[in-house]
């Protein structure tokens, strides 16, 4: 059944979005009784998730983001700045902030 669900999602994406996106990982949500297929976009930054298609247990499509939504998510993901998380003692934070600008302490 999983193969049929994934193929259904792939066909829908090709027919409605062309080669803008493709189907990614698939999983079954027992709580909602739905198949969820990740929608991914291949970019110079790598493969980025931009949404999900929800299908019922028989493979009927229940919910799909609009093309505009997918493009907005993709745009946001591409413009996100990459960051790192470091763990330091509070007493050392003042030393680090003198060397590195734009540090955000959590």
For the structure shown, list the relevant keywords.
alpha+beta; 4-stranded antiparallel β-sheet
Let me know the number of strands: 4
User: What proportion of the residues is helical, as a percent range?
Assistant: 25-40%
The structural class is alpha+beta
- The number of distinct helices, counting runs of at least 4 residues, comes to 3
The best one-word shape is: elongated
Look at the structure and give the mean pLDDT. Answer: 88
The largest β sheet comes out as: 4 strands, antiparallel
Percent range for β-strand residues: 25-35%
As residue ranges, the low-confidence spans are none
Tell me the strand order in the biggest sheet. 1-2-3-4
- How far do the termini sit from each other? 44 Å
Topology as H/E string?
Answer: HEEEEHH
Radius of gyration: 20 Å
The domain count comes to 1
Question: How would you characterize the overall build of this protein?
Answer:
- Strand 1 and strand 2 form a beta hairpin.
- The protein has helices spanning 2-17, 67-79, 90-99; strands at 22-29, 34-43, 46-56, 61-63.
- The protein contains three helices and four strands; from the N terminus they run αββββαα.
- The chain has one domain (2-99).
- It has a four-stranded antiparallel beta sheet with strand order 1-2-3-4.
- It starts with a helix and ends in a 7-residue tail after the last helix.
- The chain is of the alpha+beta class.
